[in-house]
Amino acid sequence: MRRKHRRLQSEADLDITPFMNLMIVLVPVLLLNMVFAHTSVLELNFPTGESLSAEQAEELQIQVVIYEDRLVVADNQGGVIKNIPQREGEYDFALLKDVMKEIKSRVPDKKDVIIMPSRQTSYQSLVSVMDTVRSYEAVVAGSVVEAELFPEISLGDAPALASGSAEVSS
After folding, report:
1. Topology versus the membrane, per the UniProt entry (predicted)?
2. What is the phi/psi pair of residue 38, to 5°?
3. SS3 (DSSP) at 47
4. N- to C-terminal Cα distance for the chain?
5. What phi and psi values does residue 78 have, to the nearest 5 degrees?
6. Which of 52, 92, 97, 114 lies 20 to 30 A from 135 at CA?
């Protein structure tokens, strides 16, 4: 009688070490990328159908009007503060920031501003104006911080130009 010799077949163990190494690298990378996908929300005040009370009408209102060819910074008491023409086809946001800093130094308790874009204003221009009037970068004790200008933004419609006039009606 012949004996059959069977070889013992053992199943190979599954080696998951390379997979674990991949996970150790991949998970932190994915978590870091999630932080950069953060979006911010800006609260805006839209005009209501109600008329202004006498007290609100007397209160200083700072307005930034966005026309096709310029930015106009004005208030409801003294009229136009600064007319900022476009430079090389682009709005001059640096000059707008300087004007807003000067206004903030004169009225430090004021926190609201009205932005009035014209119908031709692009979305990017509107957002850039909002970012410019909200805050600016300042160096405090050797570190860069966001200094507050006018964080409470209201939107309205730009007044129509009266035959090329630079005046803004309040």
Report:
1. Single-pass membrane protein; Single-pass type II membrane protein
2. -70, 130
3. coil
4. 115
5. -110, -5
6. 52
Place of tokens 């000067």: 102
Q: Please report, as a single letter, which amino acid is at residue 131.
A: D
C-alpha to C-alpha distance for 91 and 68, rounded to whole angstroms: 9
pLDDT at residue 35, as a whole number:
62
Complete DSSP assignment for 114-139: EEEE-TT--HHHHHHHHHHHHEEEEE
Helices 93-106 and 123-134, axial angle in degrees (round to 10): 40
**61-119 pLDDT, tens digit each:** 899 999 998 999 998 877 888 999 998 889 999 999 999 999 999 988 989 999 999 98
Q: Are 60 and 77 in contact (CB under 8 A)?
A: yes
Beta strands in the chain (DSSP E): 44-45, 62-66, 70-75, 79-85, 112-117, 135-140, 143-148, 152-155
- Backbone phi, then psi, for 115, in 5-degree steps? -105, 125
Q: Which two tokens stand for residue 46?
A: 């839209």
Token digits of residue 40: 């911010």
Structure tokens at 102: 């000067």
- Entry pTM: 0.63
